[in-house]
Amino acid sequence: MADKNAPGALDVITTPDYEAMVIGAHPDDDDFAAAATSALWVKQGKKVVWVVMTDGAEGSEVPSLVDTEFMLTREQEQRMACEVLGVQAVEFLRFSDGHLRNTEAARKAVVRLIRKYRPRIVITHDPSQLFFAPDPDEKPEDTAYLNHPDHRATGNIVLDAIFPAVGNPRSYRELLVEGFPPYRVHELYLFGTEHINTYIDVSETIDLKTKALQCHVTQFGTDAEMLEWIRKWTAETAKQAKEKKGLDMQYAEAFRRIKLYVPKQEEK
Ligand SMILES: [Zn+2]
């Protein structure tokens, strides 16, 4: 901005603390999308934090469950999954499952967390993905998957938080008093996207990913088929990495990587 050197101008912090913050709509979204990548980075000595936007209260087919109890159970499952992966911190924002909107309150909550942890990379849902629909003529047996509105809302909330609010000294000035000054996120990784450009070799941590998903007992019980499906899906992604980028991997997680900020040489 033009008045960067004006009296009272606040420096925007560019040095990260955490390597990555994964932000998913529901307990288990972070696991599906980025559990193996998170575990890999943790193994490399990096810090990773997970965020869950909603309370997960609609993740059941039993109408009579008590919301609060179910929420706490799912949070506990998510904590156990993070424990398995070595993810150092997890935050629950507890917005209403199934009804998440890109509101002032949601954006501010995300700005607060990004400023608190200062992740180099933020990983979240691709908000532009309305559905995944195979061509009915090519795959007559397959059905489409409509992307959950909470997933799209999460993507939009996170993108709007990152720019301009997280790095703007005049956005959410009340957060300055709480000790959360402006910070610049370096990269954005989107999952649940048809615009993949980055493959992470997770052959080393695929087992941890399946173990983490097993922690979500309310969602999958002891469903061995689901774990088999995860392996197949991750192996299929590795095959794509070979076809599209010539990369040799057994298992891969895939993202659309977007660079937002490149530190100057002396900062690195
Ligand atoms: Zn979800």
In words, what does this structure look like?
This protein is α/β, with parallel strands linked by helices and 268 residues long. The chain has a single domain (20-262), classed as LmbE-like (Rossmann fold). The chain contains eight helices and nine strands. It has helices at residues 29-43, 67-85, 104-117, 149-162, 174-177, 206-214, 217-220, 224-245; strands at residues 20-24, 48-54, 89-95, 121-125, 131-132, 145-146, 187-191, 198-201, 252-259. Strands 3-2-1-4-7-9-8 form a seven-stranded mixed sheet, sandwiched between helices. Strands 5-6 form a two-stranded antiparallel sheet. The longest helix has 22 residues, at 224-245. Bound molecules: zinc ion. Residues 25-26, 29, 148, 151 line the site of zinc ion. Zinc ion binds next to loops.
Write the layout of secondary structure elements.
Blueprint: E1 20-24, H1 29-43, E2 48-54, H2 67-85, E3 89-95, H3 104-117, E4 121-125, E5 131-132, E6 145-146, H4 149-162, H5 174-177, E7 187-191, E8 198-201, H6 206-214, H7 217-220, H8 224-245, E9 252-259
Bound molecules: zinc ion (ZN).
Summed up:
The protein has 268 residues and is of the alpha/beta class. It is 38% helix and 17% strand.
